[in-house]
């Protein structure tokens, strides 16, 4: 089959790779109908996330059709149209039973790398480097889905592929930030980053009853999109004094909940992959710092943005003296997906407007260039493998 493979820092190409096959009894094979780009991929492609290997298949948001099931798969049959959670989780370990699916103890078959980097291995992930298990991703014609009963969710007939594809990661990530960030009716919520993830966090905050939601970004077209599609207020990061405006707009207090959906800022080309950086190297985290500085006393900051190692300029003093709760996580998607798909079915959540471009999988390298450069109003590019487009 054909798949989008990482070749080296900044280099991706569509290559022929072996078809996936059932390895464990709980696996399913899914024929991909649509897969989407994600901000995480930009960092993976740059080689700024540990242990990418040439040949790794990218892509962690995808919708497809089940074409084969292992003998222990109970909830899915051949022919089901499913969206697959980007986080791979067993559903049975202590962490999964607490709803902390992104912390699954069983789904990373190479835990040593993550243990070395972070002290313990989190859940595996599709197309997310050897550190998260080396699982082939969804920018492919077919994908092997481990723990299919836990990670694949049937898409209601009323929900299009373009709507459902963002349920794989962006929508549950945004929802998790609003939920675990503690958004309550009447709250003021500020969101840094107006990509798909930030906009879905903003929409989640609206649905959870926030009185005001303020989105912050540097791109006018994305800010415009957020105003039009979710009716939020916006601040331009380059032109406004974000901290001052947020304070002024909240009677001097600051937002109750701040969501960071930016992550590692882009770095000039020629940077070394993280694994090769000198010990103690740090990543910039300006937006995390800004969120903590802006947050009201006793408020909370939820970090969704991707960081791989150490960060600099982290204002621990402000967090401590203002009693700010700071949390961060990869999304525990299995916890939210059924309810999100219901909201999508009812039309409460219609994120398909974020899929601004569609291309055949064969043109995925061009799609990633468009996405990286944010050209032509690009927020997400979705790829259709030739197998489904005929
Ligand atoms: N925690 C999770 O489970 C999870 C899931 C998906 C994505 N992510 C991460 O969330 C982040 C956002 O993902 P995305 O797909 O929306 O990415 P994206 O690259 O499409 O969007 C990031 C946005 O941040 C904006 N930005 C850059 N610098 C900024 C600044 N200083 N202030 C405000 N905005 C700024 C960019 O203009 C862009 O619109 C990424 O780091 C991604 O890796 C995390
Ligand atoms: Zn992602
Ligand atoms: Zn588990």
What does this structure look like?
With 390 residues, the protein is an alpha/beta fold. The protein has 2 domains: 2-169 and 331-389, Medium-chain alcohol dehydrogenases, catalytic domain (Quinone Oxidoreductase, Chain A, domain 1, Alpha-Beta Complex); 170-328, Rossmann fold, CATH 3.40.50. It is 29% helix and 23% strand. Strands 3, 4, 5, 8, 9, 18 and 19 form a 7-stranded mixed sheet that branches. It has a 6-stranded parallel sheet with strand order 12-11-10-13-15-17, with helices on both faces. A two-stranded antiparallel sheet has the order 1-2. The structure holds nicotinamide-adenine-dinucleotide and zinc ion (2 copies). Nicotinamide-adenine-dinucleotide binds at residues 38-40, 42, 169-170, 173, 192-198, 216-219, 222, 237, 261-263, 265, 286-287, 304-306, 329-331.
């Amino acid at each position: 089959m054909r798949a989008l493979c990482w070749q080296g820092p900044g280099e991706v190409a569509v290559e022929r790779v072996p078809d996936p096959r059932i390895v464990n009894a709980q696996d399913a094979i899914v024929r991909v109908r649509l897969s989407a780009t994600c901000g995480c991929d930009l960092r993976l492609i740059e080689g700024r996330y540990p242990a990418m290997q040439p040949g790794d298949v990218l892509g962690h948001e995808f919708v497809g059709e089940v074409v084969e099931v292992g003998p222990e798969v109970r909830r899915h049959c051949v022919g089901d149209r499913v969206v697959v959670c980007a986080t791979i989780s067993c559903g049975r370990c202590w962490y999964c039973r607490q709803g902390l699916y992104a912390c699954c103890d069983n789904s990373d078959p190479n835990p040593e790398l993550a243990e070395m980097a972070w002290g313990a291995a989190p859940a595996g992930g599709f197309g997310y480097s050897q550190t998260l298990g080396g699982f082939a991703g969804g920018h492919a014609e077919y994908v092997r889905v481990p723990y299919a009963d836990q990670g694949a969710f049937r898409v209601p007939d009323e929900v299009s592929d373009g709507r459902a594809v963002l349920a794989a990661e962006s929508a549950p990530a945004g929802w998790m930030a609003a939920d675990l960030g503690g958004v309550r009716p009447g709250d003021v919520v500020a969101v840094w980053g107006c990509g798909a993830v930030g906009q879905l966090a903003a929409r989640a905050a609206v649905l959870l009853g926030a009185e005001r939601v303020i989105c912050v970004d540097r791109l006018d077209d994305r800010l415009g999109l957020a105003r039009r599609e979710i009716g939020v207020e916006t601040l331009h990061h380059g032109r406004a004094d974000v901290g001052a405006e947020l304070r002024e707009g909240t009677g001097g207090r600051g937002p109750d909940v701040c969501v960071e959906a930016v992550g590692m800022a882009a770095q000039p080309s020629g940077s070394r992959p993280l694994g090769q950086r000198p010990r103690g190297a740090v990543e910039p985290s300006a937006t995390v710092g800004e969120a903590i500085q802006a947050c009201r006393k006793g408020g909370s900051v939820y970090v969704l943005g991707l960081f791989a190692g150490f960060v600099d300029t982290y204002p621990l003093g402000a967090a401590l003296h203002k009693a700010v709760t700071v949390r961060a996580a990869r999304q525990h998607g299995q916890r939210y997906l059924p309810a999100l798909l219901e909201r999508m079915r009812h039309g409460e959540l219609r994120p398909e407007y974020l899929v601004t471009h569609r291309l055949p999988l064969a043109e995925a390298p061009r799609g990633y260039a468009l996405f990286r450069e944010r050209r032509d109003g690009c927020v997400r590019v979705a790829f259709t493998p030739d197998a489904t487009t005929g």
